[in-house]
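User: ok so my PI wants both of these folded by tonight, can you help

Assistant: No problem, let's get them done. Here's the first:
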Amino acid sequence: MSSAARPPRRRALTALAALPLLALALGACGYGSQDDSAARPAGGTGNAKKLSADTVRIGYFPNITHATPLVGEQEGLIQKELGGTKLRSTTFNAGPSEIEALNAGSIDIGWIGPSPAINGYVKSKGKSLRIVSGSASGGVKLVVDPKKISSLDDVKGKRIATPQKGNTQDVAFLNWIAGKGWKVDPQSGKGDVSVVRTDNKVTPDAFKSGSVDGAWVPEPTASKLVSEGGKVLLDEASLWPDGKFVITNVIVSQKFLDEHPDVVEAVLRGSVKTNAWIKAEPEKAKGSANAALKKLSGKELPAEILDPAWKSIEVLDDPLAASLDAEADHAVKAGLLEKPDLAGIYDLTVLNKVLKAEGRPAVDAAKLGKQ
C-alpha cells in the first residue's frame, strides 16, 4: 500500500448524544432513509440439534451491498450452520431503524453500514453492540450528467445528491470536496458545491428531471443513474488503499454475544461460507441475490443495473477496520462530529475462530478491538 494510494485521513463520527440532529442522519446505511421492516417466518433444520437459543433474529437491507445475507438466507447456507436453531430475518431500508431494532431486542445480529454502527456504539457508550465481521467493500460511485459535467473540476458549482446528511456517502463526498479545497457548510450542504440530501429511491427521478446534476451514491442506485444516461466520474474505491473500504459489516447485540456465542459463531460460519460461495460462483450468486430481492420487493433488478452493480462490490470477511476508523475521522474533519472513542467497537474473537477452522489467517481490528 503506497503512500500515494492512501487517501487523506477522514476524521470521525462522534458523540452523537451531544448532536441529536445528527443521530438520525448518521444512522443511515446509505440505501434508503425510511423504516421499511418486514419480518419473515423462522426457518429450522428438521430435528437437528438446537444451539443455546431457539431462534436467532437477523436484520439486513434488501440491497446488493448486503449480498451476504441475501444469498446466505436464499441458499440456506446460514440456516445449515444453525441446525435446529431457527433463523428469522427482518429487512430494513434505513440504518436508524435497524439500530433501534437491535437496541430493543427485536433483532440479534445485523448487516449494516459503518456510520450507523459507529452511531449505535457511541450513543450507548460502547454497551449496545460490537462489530464482529466484515461483509462487503466498494460499490459507491460519483455519477454525473455528462452534458453538464465532464471533469472532476466541473463538479464545483453543481448540485450533487447524497443519500442523507451525515450518512456514509455524505461524509465521503464532503471529505472529497474538502480535498479539492472547496468549502461547503456540512449542515446546510450549501457552498462551492450544493450537496442535496435525497433518498436513494428518489434520486433517479431527480436526476432524470435535472434537479440534481449528479450523485455520490451506493449500488444499485449508481448503476440505475448510469442506465438513465449518467456517467461514472469517480469510483470511491480509487480513493482507498488497495481499493478497499467497508460498505457493510456485521454487528451483534452485546447482550446476545455474551449469552449466545455459539449462535453468533454459527451465523458467522454461514456468513464466511456464503462469501466463499459467492466468490466461487459469482454468476449463480448474482442470480440468487436477485431472486432474494424479487422475493422481498416483488421485482428483480434488470441486467443493465444488476450486472455493473454486482461487479463493483466485493464480499469479504475482513471488516477493514482501518477504513472504518478513517471514515469516522472524515466526519470529524467535515465538521459533522466530534472525535469519538471507538476503542472496543470490534470483537473479532469468534470470526477469527471460524477463519482458523477454515485454514485462513486472522483479521485485524486496527487497535479498535475488544478491550
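One down. Here's the second:
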Amino acid sequence: MKPIDTLNTLWNAPVEDLKKGYSLSGETYVCLFCGYSTEAGLIYAENGTFYEAGKFMRRHIEDGHGSPFEALIGLDKKSTGLTDHQNALLRLFYSGRSDDEIKNELGIGSASTIRHHRFALKEKERQARAFLALMELLGERGGRREPAFIAPHRNARMLDERYNLTAGEEEDILRGAFPEGPDGPLRTFDLKEKQRLAVLRHTASRLDDKRLYTEKEINAALEPIYADYAILHRFLIEYGFLDREPDGSAYWTTAGGRPAAANAESAQSAAKKAQSNPKEESPVNRRKELQAIYKEIKQEAGVYRVVHTASGRSFVASLPNLKSMSGRQFELNNGSFQNKELQQDWNQYGADAFEFEVLEVLKPSENAYVTVREQLNELEEKWLNKLQPYGERGYNRRPAE
C-alpha cells in the first residue's frame, strides 16, 4: 500500500507532466487524473494489440480523459484560476475555430473582441510564468524554512482553507484523534474541518490501494477504525479519498486508482467470462458505460436553506443533488456540519426548531461550455445576494470585499 503523501499527484506534478497527463515514478507510469498505473517493462493487451507501458498509458489518457487539455480544463475554478468566460474561450480556441466562428457561436461583439480576449489570456500566461518562477526561487532559497503544507490529494473536491495545514499540525491532530497509535481506533469524528481532513487522509492510507472492495468489505475495513463506519464511508467519498462504481458494486481508493480486479479469483472469473463471450466489453469499457448511464440519471441540482424558525436566521447553500439534503441533516444530527454556528444552534435548540427549504431548482443551461457546477455557483450567489443570510440574518460567512 502506497502512502498518500508520496504519490505523484496532479497537485505537485511538473508542467511537462501535466501536459502529458501522466508522470513516471521509478518504473511506474501514473495517470495524474485518476491514478491508473502501468509498469515499465510489462506488455499490455487491448483488442488483440499489444502495447508497452508508456504507449498504453497514453492510450488510457486518450480513451479515459479525452486529452490532458480536456481533463485540465474540466477542473474547478480554484484549480485553474479561470473565470467561466475564460474557460469557455479556451475550449473554443483549443477546438481550432477561427475568431469569426467563435464570435458567431458566442454571439458577442466582433472578431477584434475575440482577439482582445486572446491577448488577455496571453497576459495571464506571462504573469503565471513569472509567478511560477518566483515561487520556485523562493523554494530554492536557503535560510528560513517554509512550512511544509500538505498537498491536496488527487481527487480533492473542496480546495479551501482546510488545506492550510502543515505536516506538523497534521501529526499533532492524528496523535489526538488516534490515542492508541496510528493503527488504533479513532477517538471521535466530532472534529473541526482541518482535523476531519487529516483524519480522513490517514484513514484512507490504512486501506489497500491495490484492491477493489465490495460495500460490505469497505465497511468491514472501516469498522475497526470507527464504530460508526457509515459516516467514515460517506465522508471518504465526499472528500474524494474513495471512488466507486455508480451502482455501488465496487469501491477503491483514489490514491491507487481503480485496480483491474479485486483479487486473483475475480481476475480469473473475468478471464473465463471473456473466453466464453469474446465480444464482451472490457472492464474499462464497461466502467465507461456505467458512468454514461449514471450521468443520464436525472438529478435535480439547486439551492436550499436551513431556517431557524424562531429567529428567522438561515443558512443558504447549493447541492448538485437536492435529495442529499437528508445528508446535511444527518451531519447536523451527528455534530459534523461544516458551519459551526449553525451546528451550535442546532445542538442547543434541536432539530424541531429548524426547517429545510428548497429555494430554487437549477434549470441547466444549453451552453455546453458552462458546467452545472458553474451555473449552481451563480444560482447560489443570486440567493445569497437576495437573502443576505449574514450576521443577525443568518449563518453564512460574509464574503470578503
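The two ends are 45 Å apart (CA to CA). Residues 1-8, 261-284, 286-297 have pLDDT under 50 and may be disordered. Good luck tonight!
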